[in-house]
Predict the structure.
Amino acid sequence: MASLQGFIMDITSYLEEFSLIQQAFIVGAIPALLTSIGSFASLVTGSKFSEKTYVPTMGFAAGVMLVASFTSLLIPASEIAPMSIIVVGFLLGVLLIRGLDSVTPHLHVIKGYEGPLDLRERIAKVWLIAMAVIIHNVPEGLAVGSAVSYEVGEGVSIAFAIGIQDIPEGLAVSAPVAMITNSIGIGILVGILSGVVELLSALLPPLFYGLSVSTLPLLMSLSAGAMLYIVIHEIIPDVMGSDYHEYATMGFLIGFIIMFGLDTILG
């Protein structure tokens, strides 16, 4: 633990030399890069895809996102802003992802299609899967960018925790796309695209950071609301309906304790 703490502190000290937007770009690149690495794993696995691998990965993601929503976003935001700002930001985050979820056609690996029914037959499955990943990665990127804006060490801890689960998640994206398109290259490309979306989302909070004193806690609580909506509405129903729901539970608990440990180390 001490070596991990020293490693993260070294990165944090290094990043203090950069501007806020540069910090967000560098830290946001951590999960983006790890997602891409996971996508390249499909070169080894080919187009094979295992629900048994996907389920604990998403459970792990849910555990990380749940802890990060509270310890790295909501609690710090409540220390610098009144509860009215926190509630408004939280609800805006929920409505943002709810709106994206409603109007954007996307395909879950287990739960299946969601979105406007009239678009279901018009859009190739590869893009439906890509849109599902984009919806998932937007709040993750917002969380990293918001945490960096608050305190760069918090952003680094979230980035690494999210990045850990992004490695198998990158494979979980690229493998089914490769299977559908019969092209590993397209699968890898979609996986990299999902990481780029995460990176771009991480740049948004710093861009709005200086507008007013309420902007940062608003963005932090917005990110928390968006992530919790993804966990409750998307991830948990998807994996708990699987035959491997016990693996999802174990993945959730591992992700929960790792994110909590990282936050405690930096606390």
About this structure: The mean pLDDT is 80. The beta strands are 106-108, 112-114. The radius of gyration is 18 Å.
